[in-house]
Amino acid sequence: MENRTYIRTSLFLLVSITFIICFDSCSNSSPNQISFTYESFKKSFHLTGGTIYKNDSLFIGHPLWMRFHPDSFLILQDDGLSHQIRIIDLKDNKVHEVIPEGRGPGEMVIGWGISIIDKNIFAFDPQLQKVIIMTPDSKREFRITKEYKIDAKYPMEFCPITKDISVCLCGLEDNRLSFLDANGKIVKKIGDFPPFQNDNIIKGDNGIFQAVLSASPEGNMLALANKNIDLIEIYDLKSGNTLRLQGPIGLKIKVVDLGISKIVEPRYDNYLLITSNKNEIWTSYNGYKMEKGTQPSSSDQIPKQIFCFSWEGKPRRQFKLDYSFGGFDVDWTNNTLYTLELRDNIPQIVSYQINRIIKKIKNLN
Fold first, then answer.
1. Which of 60, 78, 161, 77 minimizes the C-alpha distance to 117?
2. What does the pLDDT average to over 272-294?
3. 35-44: pLDDT as tens digits
C-alpha cells in the first residue's frame, strides 16, 4: 500500500512539474494575432430539421450547459431546479438527478460549466468556488468521488486539462490564466489580457474579458472564446506559443469604468459556448450588438451558428441553424451534433447527423 501511494504521488508530481515547465515557456511568449471574416471559412452548412429528443420523464427549465458523455449520456446543467445536474442515459432514456441545490457537501448553489475528463464529470460552482467530480459505476450511475475548493481569487470559469491539472479565469488575478493542481491549489499563473484602446489608463482583467474554455483531449492545447469581444485565444501549452484570432467585428474597443464593474464598448454578445476534439475547436457565435435603451429578446442573446477552427487557428467551416441554441456538444465518434434549441420559446434537445458533411469535408481535404 505504501509503494502504491508513493508511485501515485510521484506520478502526480511528475505531471505537475512537466506542466509547470510548459507554463513557464508559455508565459514568456508574445501572442501572435491574425484576423478572419465570414468569408474566411471554406464551407458553410445550413442545418435544418433535426431530431427532437422525446422523453416524458424529462423537464427542461432554464438549461445553462449541455455536454455529451462518450458512454452515451447527455448531461444537462439546469438553473432553478431542485437538482443542478440531470444525466440522460441515451441507451435506456432514464434520467438521473444529481447534485441538489444547497451549500453543503455534494451540493451547489449554481452550476456553471461541465467538463468530461477520462469519463469523469467535472461540475463547477463559481459562487461556492468548488468543483465536484462524478464517476460512473457498473450500473451506469454517477457517484461523487471527489469534491474540493478552489484556492483562488474569484474563479469565474473552470476547465480541467487533465485529471490532475485544471485552469480557471479568476476575476481578481493579474494574469489571464491560473493553473490548479488536483486539490484546487494554484501552481502557475500566465498570460496577458487582450489589448484595448484605453489600456494605458484602465487595467484589464477577467471580469472585463469573460470567456469560455476548452482543452484538447491530450491536454496540450487550450482555447478561450470571449463572450463580449470578437476574439479567440489559443494557447499551445507544449511549445509556449499563443495565438489570438480576431473575428469579423474586430477589436476596436474601449473599457468603461462604472465603479462597481467595468464594461467594454461597443457591447456585443459574441461567443457563448465552446467544445473541441484533438483536431478542431467549435464555438457558438452570435455577434449581436447591445444597443442602449433596447431590450434584446431571448433569441437575440443566443447564437444560431457555430464556427469551426483548427488548433492552428485556421477557419475551417461554419454551421448555420434555423433556431437559436444555447448549449451544444458533439458526439465525435458517431458524428452527431446535439443542441439545446429554443423552438417556439420552448427549450428542446435536438440532434443532427453530420456524417455526410464530415465525409464531404474529408474529401475536400
1. 161
2. 91
3. 899 999 989 9
